[in-house]
Amino acid sequence: MKNISYLLIGLFMSICQAQNDNKNYTDAFKLIDVWLESQKDYEAIPGITAMVVRDQDLVWSGAYGKSNIEQDTDIKRSTLCSICSITKTFTAVAIMKLVDEGKIKLDDKVKDILPHFKVVQKYPDGGFITIRSLLSHSSGLPRDSGHNYWSAPDFPFPSENELNAVLKELETESPVGANLSYSNLGYALLGQIIEQVSGMPFEQYLKTHVLIPLQMSDSYVGIKGSLYGNKHAVGYTAVNRNGIRKRANLYQTKAISPAAGLSTSILDLAKYASWQFRLRNASVKEVLNPSSLRKMHEVQSESKNGSRTWGFGFEVFSDKSGNKWVSHGGICPGYVSYLKMNLTNKMGYGLMVNSNRVNAIQLINGIMGIMKKAGSISKNDAKNIDLEEYTGYYNLNPWNSEYYISRWGKGLVALYLPAKNPVDSMYFYEHKGNDTFRLIGSDEEIVFKRDKNGKVYQVLNGGNYHPKMKY
């Protein structure tokens, strides 16, 4: 699984050079593997899948841990997880497709399409709730319907009839367009609009008009019982006081599916990201008109304090370097996910985990941080020395846990584990002579020691010996 992903590195390096990104990511991807594997162990995460795409190329992907602990099933890059609220971006695509076809308009009133929509508008001066305001989380609707579907152990998501029955009891929390107020209810209603306008169930419409055209063959609305526990990863809870994650009960999102119901693989999520990079600058339609996707990626609403901005389906923001980003995360019972795309340089990052209380954003940022540290491409000029001899885990017990020494260009890097932010735990060394390396920017040295057979078995670091370990 990991070996397959590494076959893409050579291609990625050639692409990067062609696009003037003169970095060698081979060592970075190796260190990402080590870091994610260790965080999985230290945080007792059952399984992680992750990917990096550059425009149309899957440049790296990995899978770590188990999809089913009880059956000792390895998680794979093709394993499905629920992506929870990232589903909203797919629902937004489906709505924009209906807009492209002239079947609805963004400023159509919801009450004109859904006669049962009887939510009390406390702030009528703000105007009517429209498709546009639902897409951009600016409708003023409450976050949820009042059903207790986030409650363990059974997660009783409402049916469409149960959802519609309470609409008349709900009221808006702010005027339309006055604030960014994230709403699962709003996206559940968008799913109903898709059904009403298309004449097809939401699941069927999404599959026929979005998933199949994008060749996302491992993507489904809901969690299929026939796949659960093998092709689809089992979900697990947060870590309990005893350090154990329990198996979360299987659930179906029912009427909330358009807001949180899609399951997919990390490989399919990569296809979804590449499609967006491809379509943004295209001249022909592919599922959507290019202009419609660009509109999804533009700021459509803003929180009162200006801290967050939203497009249609995606959070939209720019970094300090002027790069434009869109992203969405997902959290639901037993699963956490995150998709982050740099629209400026066409880099996409995705991650899925089959347990709760895992910081997916932190893990994605760690992947990005290690890649950013990748050195300029250069041939290893350390004479008569094989840097791979030093590679491995070194024991820091009892004072700390361990660190991993790996090749980094023409030198070495030590990554101290565990590390929530791996960049802050990376130390770079240059070869000084024989088995001695000097910490870059310092006079500190580390000296590797060999056994009688010439094998490296420990390192002298900071005046103390740290033995090499095997896993």
TrEMBL record:
It comes from the Bacteria. Keywords: Hydrolase. Residues 43-357 form the Beta-lactamase-related domain. InterPro entries: AmpC-like, Beta-lactam-related, Beta-lactam/transpept-like. One of its GO terms (molecular function) is hydrolase activity. It holds the Pfam family Beta-lactamase. PANTHER family: BETA-LACTAMASE-RELATED DOMAIN-CONTAINING PROTEIN, D-ALANYL-D-ALANINE-CARBOXYPEPTIDASE/ENDOPEPTIDASE AMPH. This is Serine hydrolase. It comes from Leptobacterium flavescens.
